[in-house]
Specification:
Residues 728-786 form the SH3 domain. The chain has helices at residues 10-13, 16-66, 78-149, 157-255, 357-367, 393-409, 423-433, 436-441, 452-465, 476-484, 488-499, 504-522, 524-527, 531-542, 550-553, 556-568, 570-575, 682-688, and strands at residues 268-277, 284-294, 299-306, 312-313, 317-326, 337-342, 349-353, 586-588, 616-618, 671-673, 719-721, 731-735, 754-760, 766-771, 774-779, 783-785. With 786 residues, it is α+β, with helices and mostly antiparallel strands.
Amino acid sequence: MGLQPLEFSDCYLDSPWFRERIRAHEAELERTNKFIKELIKDGKNLIAATKNLSAAQRKFAHSLRDFKFEFIGDAETDDERCIDASLREFSNFLKNLEEQREIMALSVTETLIKPLEKFRKEQLGAVKEEKKKFDKETEKNYSLIDKHLNLSAKKKDSHLQEADLQVEQNRQHFYELSLEYVCKLQEIQERKKFEFVEPMLSFFQGMFTFYHQGHELAKDFNHYKMELQINIQNTRNRFEGTRSEVEELMNKIRQNPKDHKRASQFTEEGYLYVQEKRPAPFGSSWVKHYCMYRKAAKKFNMIPFEHRSGGKLGDGEVFFLKDCTKRHTDSIDRRFCFDIEAADRPGVSLTMQAFSEEERKQWLEALGGKEALFHSFNRAILPRPEGNAQLDKMGFTILRKCISAVETRGINDQGLYRVVGVSSKVQRLLSMLMDVKTCSELDLENSIDWEVKTITSALKQYLRSLPEPLMTYELHGDFIVPAKSGSPESRVNAIHFLVHKLPEKNKEMLDILVKHLTNVSNHSKQNLMTVANLGVVFGPTLMRPQEETVAAIMDLKFQNIVVEILIENHEKIFRTSPDTTFPEPICLSASPPNAPPRQSKRQGQRTKRPVAVYNLCLELEDGDNPNLPKEDTPTGSQDSLSSPSPTSATVHGPPGPERNHLLSDGGSCGEWTSTTPSQTRPSMVQWLNPQSPTTPSSNPAITPPSPRTSTFPLSPAATIVDKPPESVVSRKARAVYPCEAEHSSELSFEIGAIFEDVQASREPGWLEGTLDGKRGLIPQNYVKLL
């Protein structure tokens, strides 16, 4: 049962039971007071903990933002760039979330803590004051009554009447105070129900708002998250292929390291101990040097290096070789020694010690030393075993027979081409296919003796057994270059051009195979073989470098991209001819470049703005037809690296560091140029250098970047011409494209806007500048420095 009501009429009786009921009300208010006091304390602790959590989250986000993945080689795939940018995306997501949490923490103070403190102070505090008055008047009233009743009846009537009047007045005052106190007690018991609960409701509303904002941020993030999962899966698939190749190469080198020496500019190189002579009392010492010798120039370099001292590199020496003589043990108390005389140091002889007799023989052979035992070493290109597979009529029969069987029996088999057959069965089938008599008798479409995985493995084994990969050693490097850089359209155009440079038989077989792979990818919902998965399987099969090195294996992922582009654009690449008719240098500037990625804080669908890729320029022979193709290139499937990525980073032109180019007059860029040894391209230099006598502004044949994207062929001898990035100091800049800000820290501007005090920003791909008195971020590839 709850508290009993306090009747006003009981104030005049002031019975013991009335007093008990008052004490019950007072005890309940005291309990409420203690509860609110503890709740306020817990609320402040909650705010402090929230701020600590927010600080920890922000620090975590800061750590994510500052870290950057390094990569092996001279370029990254689009997937790898997306993965690199993901840490900054995660950081921005946490930053946005913590901003909402900070708003929630402030609302807790305003909506919960302050109202409760006010209620406790103004309402419960007022009741406490009323209680003090009531207790004081109670004591005074009953003390006066006791004193009055003790008066002697013999006192004068006037004195007694005066005393009676005083007692009556005091009792009336006590009754009034009692009435007010009882009213206050009951009022506060009713008031606390809404005065206390209403702030709690506001507090929970703030929490719901915070979690709703988190839900909205998660919804905005979901699209990016799904694309990133595809990027990660593609990168993992390529990693598995690369790892197996690296392990295979490692095992080959482990078994026979001498036959896997890398091609080098030096005739011989390695560690030698060099005798350093000292004055007589001190004898001599032997110091380890890394030595390099070029036989053509007779130039000998040696650099002291000691592994045990933390790998400290000393000052090197260079001299020209005059003579080399083998030292016998009867003339020196050390093995494996030989002497070197320097042509530019008359009378000076250096004694050197190799690590073994075999290494000394190699040095003596390279240096032309006396008593040298000559033998040859293959240091560059590894011969590959050649099977019986040839690119002939029989080869086309094998290809068509296998493809027909696969498309008839197993086009929907899960893991098609990834699931391998039993090695012995594969070898037996391939032997039968390569025999004219047995091949004609084989009916792979209707035979149950041969599993689909055996047929697919035999097909891949045939392609790998060709003396030269289907896409040739000669064009291998040229195919890799566009896969490492450029926009998706420029990649397709470049590979389109290169495919038509292949020998006719190679191109014909590649056409048949890629058409089949396109059909396989069209059934990816059933067989799970997406374009990216087929790229992983056939990249190393159709393309391989002539020299096996770790650096070459690191390019496997770009071989996969080339195969993806072939599959996604089969009709265009094999059914149309590349356009080789171009006027003066054409810059593929496309529409306004994409700005570097920054997390948008707007609600609703998240806008993706990837970093602009290289603008590609091409210059062909003078007098070419000025007509430009305007065909749109399909971008392909969502999970392919040849498609545009959600957050592409700046492209790296191989070799060299990352390049973020600014647009100079006419649109400076990393260009594809077609050059031959007998012909120079001065006009290309003028195109790249705005200070040349002929600039795009003065040459009407050269036009600045247009909003339309032009396609172009790529020469088989294509090379990258790199323009070093301009050093960004405090300068002025002019907008060459319009831009609408997506964040309060960015600037909106139209074409021709002039920015003051332009400086480099800590965010890659962005500049900081002032426009109309407002300072903010500017996409670097939207402006031209003045």
